[in-house]
Write a structure and sequence with these properties.
This protein is mainly alpha-helical and 190 residues long. It has eight helices and two strands. It has helices spanning 4-17, 27-41, 48-68, 78-88, 92-111, 121-130, 138-145, 154-166, and strands at residues 24-25, 76-77. The protein has a two-stranded antiparallel sheet.
């Protein structure tokens, strides 16, 4: 059973993709997120890096749409999104697989510092900004997520994301992976 706390976190996750805050996610919302990442990272749209990122997001969109578009109109409304995720959360191993597969591909394309094999502060800032999250003290927020060695590895990042979705512990660090737990009222604000 999904807790009220998990539902709150799912609202945050929904808002990451609902770029125009109209209470539904459409393919253009996903494209806007990709465009933000491309702009923030300075990726040329003619490169394999761009096409890999674009295809990764469209695959994620199409898979989500397949199960969450209840009325088959190519839009995912908030209630349908919740219903889809409530069903998915019954199978924690599926959430883990989704995060491990998508997360590894996403980070290898855009956010992971290959030279140091770390998720750097600059990339974390791009990660949140690309999703439209504005954090007042982002550097302090990032420091809270660091491991004992003062780093975030790709494994750390994936575990933080898994914890975001699966944990009911309000003190778990993974809850902060997509920024603070406040959402404002991002759904249907426009």
């Amino acid at each position: 059973m999904v807790t009220e706390f998990q539902e709150h976190k799912l609202k945050i996750f929904f808002c990451l993709f609902d770029s125009d805050n109209d209470g539904k996610i459409e393919v253009n919302d996903f494209k806007k997120v990709v465009d933000k990442f491309v702009h923030l990272k300075g990726i040329n749209k003619e490169t394999p890096e761009y096409f890999n990122l674009y295809n990764l997001y469209l695959d994620f969109w199409e898979n989500t749409l397949k199960y969450a578009d209840i009325d088959d109109d190519d839009k995912i409304r908030y209630d349908d999104f919740l219903s889809y995720w409530f069903d998915l959360l019954k199978f924690p191993q599926e959430i883990e697989k989704l995060i491990l597969d998508f997360g590894k591909a996403f980070m290898s394309i855009i956010l992971f510092d290959e030279e140091e094999n770390l998720f750097s502060f600059d990339n974390y800032k791009i990660f949140l900004t690309g999703f439209g999250r504005e954090i007042v003290d982002i550097e302090n927020h990032y420091r809270k997520l660091l491991n004992k060695e003062g780093k975030i590895t790709i494994d750390d990042a994936q575990q933080l994301a898994i914890e975001f979705f699966l944990s009911n512990d309000k003190t778990a660090l993974g809850n902060l992976w997509f920024g603070p737990l406040d959402t404002g009222d991002c759904i249907g604000n426009k």
